[in-house]
Amino acid sequence: MRNETTLNLSAGLASVAVALCLVLLKLWALAQTGSLSIAASLTDSAMDLLMSAAGLTAIFYAARPPDEDHAFGHTSAEDLAALGQALIIVGLAIVIGWAALERLSGKTQSHLSAEQSGIWVMAISAALTLGLVAWQRRVARRTGNRVVAADSLHYVGDLLPTLGAIVALWVSSRFGIEKIDSIVALIAATIMVFGAVNIFAGAWNALMDRAASPETINGIAQIARNWPGVYGFHDLKTRTAGSRIFVHLHIELDGDQPLRDAHDIGAALKRAIVKAYPNADVIIHQDVATREAAHPATSE
Question: Which of 167, 186, 197, 279 has a CA 20 to 30 Å removed from the CA of 215?
Answer without folding.
Answer: 197
